[in-house]
Model the fold of this input.
Amino acid sequence: MNMTLYFKMLKVHAKSISSYAIGSALYLLLIIGIYPSVADAPGLNELMDSMPDSFLAAFGMEGGFQHVSDFIAGEYYGLLYIVILSIFSLMTSSQLMARLIDRGSMAYILATPNSRKKVAFTQSLVLITGLLIIALTTMLAGVIGTELLIDNKPFEAMTFIKVNLVGLLLFYAISAYSFLFSSLLNDERQALGISGLITIVFYGMDLIGKMSDKLDWLVNLSLFATFRPVEIARGSVEIWPSVTFLFILGTALYALGIILFSKRDLPL
Amino acid sequence: MIELNGLTKEFSNGKGIFDVRFSIPKGEVFGFLGPNGAGKSTTIRHLMGFMKPTSGSASIFGMDTWKDAAKIQERVGYLPGEIAFLDGMDGIEFLKLIGGMRGLKQTNYRDELIQRLQLDVKTPIRKMSKGMKQKVGIVAAFMHQPEVVILDEPTSGLDPLMQRIFIDIVSELKDKGTTFLMSSHSFSEIERTCDRAAIIKDGKIVVVENIHALQQKQRRLFEVTFSSAEEAQQVRNHLNVISVSDNRAEIAVQGDYNQFIQVLGAYEILNIDLHEQHLEDVFLNYYDREAQI
Done:
């Protein structure tokens, strides 16, 4: 990697990384903050019972919430976390490669004595660093927030960390295919469009598959099948298969993006 | 220093560059002329290792421009034809980024260039005019004192004063033995600096020629205003008059300036204007000959 490029790029993206990190942490704190009132509300479990099972299953809410970690997992990691990190991964990956190719500024970077592999690898590290910062800030906010805001409720820090680990790795893989398209295409919007579409299709397959009995096979085709925050929080699922799969997939896709970028013609 | 051996790149639409060959010895300033879309930038992209040739090859310092791109860049300076810097930084930050990526420690020459080009490096890049960006690009291409400099349309966007300063810098570096490849779509832009030039048309090299020989062959169009319409008509017999309207005559001159001056000397001339022409019109004979084949 090239240190100058790495730190400059981090600086350029520092604003967006920190706003996503702070936004994500604040949302999580908000969810934690409302937990006591939700947990004590007498009508909630009846309300849950009245809803169709398939609907509850789609959002990981079947069986109600026993612990604060279930509640956070269902309410935050089931949807908002995914939305925030997806947007960050898609936007940043398309800016790190396709935008520079699209606008021609990549020409200046490649006119320095750094191989294309080195440049692409450095850019991928910027993306991964951003993801790490956002995911770790969110996790830290969760640990500290429950400590401060919740009294006498069982909070399992270990399962919460596991939720975060699998979540981070899911986005390691999602950012990897976004980075791959960003390295392969000359048009920033095209790169963003394709990786955005894939992400939406994956998410839709997951949602539909969980709601419908006939289409439940769709779930297993979606990348989101590897991330079941509520089940991880309840300890009812082993995380290591997902962790291994996502890590290998993400690494392979990043490597593919870097290699293909170093071999293709660039319109600079 | 720079060798192109039958460099060919065919795009899916049938366009591209075909069997481009020329070589540039050390210390030469070489012009690369062609109208827009003739294949200048495509050729330069190959020299920078941005594209892989369909066939043929190019080398700088004896190294293959596709395989050894990163190694070649250590001693090459490049000014892209399209000026597009990174967002979110000012001029000096950009130069520090490029310098840092080159491992450049000495910044004296960079600062000297900034001063000579009167560049305000604290301006955010997105607020820069085209000419200012061009200056930043020139500093980025020269600051590490490269042995070979490749410039794609270097003086576009520069005002005449800055063009002079730019030409001075090029001449100084040439005296120190720097080799240049400079592309342009206008002959007047390169004739003051270049030793030799190649002309490219539809992806093929039409001619590689000494700059003085090209100057002889260029066809210039003068618009001469006579004192009367009759006089404007009279010169038709002696000079190549393209058109006459009222007391103004458009006269084409190719090489033989003496005759032009002698004929006009007999008349009272109110004004002489030099027409800016497209490259195709300046080198009509090259472009015509090619068309006939």
Remarks:
- The interface with chain A takes residues 45, 48-52, 69-71, 73-74, 76-78, 80, 82-89, 93, 96-98, 100-103, 137, 140-141 of chain B (CB under 8 Å).
- Residues 218-292 of chain B form a domain with the Alpha-Beta Plaits fold (CATH 3.30.70).
- The CA atoms of residues 216 and 255 of chain B lie 5 Å apart.
